[in-house]
Amino acid sequence: MTHARGERAALCDLFDSLGPGAPTLCEGWDTYDLAAHLVLRERRPDAMPGIAVRALAGHTASVQQRLKARHPFPELVSLVRKPGGVYGALSFLDTAVNTLEFFVHHEDVRRAQPSWEPRELPADFEQLIWKRVSAGAKTMLRRSPVGVVLHYPGAVGSRAVVLGGAKQGPKVEVIGGAGELLLFCFGRQAHARVEYAGEPESITRLKNAGFAV
């Protein structure tokens, strides 16, 4: 099983365990909303652009609400559990696109519950996540108000740091495991188990910045 499929299955198991109405880290969304979002993302290509384009967000929100109205929560979870659209037909695309997506949303549900603890990820998964983070950090952190140095002590070889954020001015070093750095880059600063090094004012600005992907 690929890591994308494993995270998908684990998230759906958690959905089944918690039921609709449980909190998530996605602002304004509970588990029902998140399940509808994931179904929309894979099975309603007409509504996908609104996920990223604000001018089209109204249509996307409307489709998401209609999915909730049409499908009881267990039905939506069943739809999430099996890759849909092109991801169901092309497993390599599921791996390329959904590995990080489902890891982050799995953690969005896990870390919104009481007494959560970070998971210890398999070494190959950590390295895969770091490879994606190091390749995409500049894009993910483009809205950061300060420069960011991501530091993953567990990186294989010499590529342990990646620069992102503002090019001028002070920089903040963010240190942690690959999964934690990914959550940080996705705007989950308050729930990412990372350490910071730098000027206190810059660290505060970075912690409060809104650069969620």
TrEMBL record:
Name this protein carries in UniProt: TIGR03085 family protein
Domain of life: Bacteria
InterPro entries, per the entry: CHP03085 (IPR017519), DinB/YfiT-like (IPR034660), Maleyloyr_isom (IPR017517)
Organism annotation: Nonomuraea glycinis
